[in-house]
Q: What sequence folds into this?
């Protein structure tokens, strides 16, 4: 059961998977929306320009049937006359044809947006596999297409019947009208009937568009294992990243330990904290922390300080404040200047001390703001 749940695609597609699908030319598309858009524009254009087209077709028909003696006995003149009539018909139909062509090209972007992918032009030989074709024929998507086809047949058939019943008297009445009037009247009826039929398809398009978006998202869903694998590929394996961070910490610790012998003083807590400070004479800025640590690391810092004869001063509050508010390589906070200045003055006095002279007094009351000492932090309720 656990393996089955792992194989189920329950996770929404990631941004990476969506982008990969777009790169391969796979975006949601609704043929019903595209068909409806093209047909509704064609019907509207026919309704607006149908009368003009009918008049032009009628004039062309009359012209084609009215031949002069010169045209009958001279094929060249007859051919020129035919070409002129054809051009006139094309010019009359050109605005409608251009409008339909533009909408046919632009309508697919209504669902899924604009997309161009060269991979979409590459041949896919898997589509020639009969097994895949049979699988598609009995798929859930094939069932949905079948339902849509049945719905379209029922809706369009019903609407077509109602339209015929509405215009049956007008259709029979065309025979009693003058030719020019009957052509225009006929074109108006055809255009209006066409618009009504296409409007019925709008119901199917309104259902198909959200379905195609849902179906696309459902198709690209991922299993939990795929999500984990993609996360590893994108962000790196967590185990490897953890190992890298561990190595980085160890390298930083080794570099830190190498800087302890160069420090001026190590301030301790006395056992839990150790912070090594360095101040270069004549350099700009405040003293810097070159090493710090707690527990075992603090013990190692103290050990190296003793080995290289670096002064060690027990100042618990200052050690805790420095460890809390300063990272390695940073200058000490300005609020600790006074306390650190006393410590460095003591260290310099130790370096200058000579046997027989007055031994420097160890500083005991350092000016460490109470709010910088972690031990003085107010506990949260």
A:
């Amino acid at each position: 059961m656990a393996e089955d749940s792992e194989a189920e695609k329950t996770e929404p597609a990631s941004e990476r998977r969506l982008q990969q699908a777009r790169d391969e030319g796979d975006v949601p598309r609704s043929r019903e929306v595209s068909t409806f858009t093209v047909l509704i524009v064609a019907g509207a254009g026919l309704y607006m320009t149908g009368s003009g087209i009918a008049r032009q077709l009628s004039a062309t028909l009359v012209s084609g049937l009215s031949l002069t003696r010169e045209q009958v006995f001279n094929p060249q003149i007859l051919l020129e006359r035919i070409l002129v009539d054809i051009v006139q018909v094309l010019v009359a139909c050109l605005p409608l044809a251009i409008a339909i062509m533009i909408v046919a090209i632009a309508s697919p972007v209504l669902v899924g947006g604009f997309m161009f992918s060269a991979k979409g032009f590459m041949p896919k030989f898997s589509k020639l596999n009969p097994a895949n074709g049979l699988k598609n024929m009995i798929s859930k998507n094939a069932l949905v297409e079948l339902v849509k086809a049945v719905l379209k047949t029922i809706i369009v058939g019903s609407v077509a019947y109602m339209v015929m019943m509405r215009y049956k008297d007008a259709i029979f009445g065309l025979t009693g009208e003058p030719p020019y009037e009957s052509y225009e009247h006929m074109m108006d009826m055809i255009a209006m009937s066409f618009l009504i039929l296409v409007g019925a398809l709008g119901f199917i398009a309104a259902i198909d568009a959200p379905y195609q978006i849902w179906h696309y998202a459902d198709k690209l869903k991922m299993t939990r294992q795929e999500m984990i694998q993609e996360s590893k590929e994108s962000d790196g394996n967590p185990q490897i990243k953890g190992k890298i961070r561990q190595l980085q910490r160890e390298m930083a610790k080794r570099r830190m330990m190498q800087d302890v012998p160069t420090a001026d003083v190590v301030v301790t807590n006395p056992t839990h904290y150790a912070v090594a400070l360095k101040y270069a004479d004549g350099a700009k800025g405040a003293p810097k922390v070159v090493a710090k640590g707690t527990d075992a690391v603090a013990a190692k810092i103290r050990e190296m300080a003793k080995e290289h004869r670096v002064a060690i001063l027990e100042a618990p509050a200052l050690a805790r404040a420095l460890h809390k508010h300063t990272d390695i390589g940073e200058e000490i906070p300005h609020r600790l200047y006074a306390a650190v200045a006393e410590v460095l003055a003591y260290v310099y006095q130790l370096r200058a001390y000579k046997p027989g002279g007055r031994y420097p007094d160890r500083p005991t009351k350092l000016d460490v703001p109470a709010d910088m000492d972690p031990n003085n932090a107010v506990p949260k309720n």
In short: The two ends are 45 Å apart (CA to CA). Residues 1-6 have pLDDT under 50 and may be disordered. DSSP finds 13 helices and four strands in the chain. The beta strands are 265-268, 273-278, 288-294, 311-314.
